[in-house]
Amino acid sequence: MNEISLLITLASVHFIALMSPGPDFALIVQNTSHHGRRTGLTIAAGLSAGILVHSILSITGISYLVQQHPTLFSFVQILGGSYLLYLGIGALKSLYQTQKTATAPNEKKKASRILTNQKQAFSKGFMTNILNPKALVFFISLMSSLVPASMSVTGKVSAVFILWFLALFWFSLLAWLLSTKRLQRKLESSAHYIDGICGVIFTLIGSVILWQAVSHL
Fold it and tell me: Which of 23, 26, 84, 155 has the most CB atoms around it within 10 Å of its CB?
């Protein structure tokens, strides 16, 4: 298989993985529904930056070394699981506060404002992706199977660019579509349900990752 075919296959597998529901998807949906298009696009940039770092670490072999070192990999799992659990508890806490202040519109609005600026939004997107050990394992598998060591430097750089660009394109498109006026009105009316679902997703994934990390210590 030539390099172009490998890159096309890489792009296809990665794009399918991007569209599958997970922490990144949930983060975009939750925050776009609360804060609108600009915040959604900023989080998309943060998520894609995390994928860029994962891609570089995987293609240079650093991620593989981390995975092969049990103690270090468990440490990464604990960090990632704890952060996702933190996001989950935060979302559920926000839902509880919103329900508690349902009769006070101003307080309700204040309770839902989890993010305060775009820098924080970018950091949240970046940290959610970069601390996800599942992403680390995924990119190691993807790179090792579809980006052989014999591939040219141009091919490897192209592979990293493709992974970053597709992530930025998909997450930005998702944020854009979710922030159209018609859909935004529907999302705002369902924000408490979105918080609940996203909170459960983050909490479950974070708990599973932490359990796996602790069980391997």
Answer: 84
Q: Distance between CA 72 and CA 104 in Å, rounded?
A: 47
Report the C-alpha gap between 124 and 211 in whole angstroms. Answer: 23
> Residues 50, 130: contact at Cβ < 8 Å?
yes
Domain around 173: 24-215
Q: In whole angstroms, what is the distance from residue 177 CA to residue 211 CA?
A: 36
Q: Is residue 69 one of the residues assigned to a domain?
A: yes
Q: What is the pLDDT of residues 52-100, one digit of tens each?
A: 999 999 988 888 888 788 888 888 889 888 988 888 888 788 777 766 6
Q: pTM of this prediction?
A: 0.81
Structural domain includes residue 15: no
The answer to whether residue 5 sits within a structural domain is no
Q: Which residues contact 136 (CB under 8 A, 6 or more apart)?
A: 54, 57, 58, 63, 66, 67, 76
Distance CA 64, CA 144 (A): 9
Q: Is residue 190 part of a domain?
A: yes
Paired tokens of 199: 């909170």
Rounded-to-5 percentages of helix, strand, coil across the chain = 85, 0, 15
pLDDT at 105 over 60: no
The number of folded domains in the chain is 1
- Token digits of residue 207: 């708990």
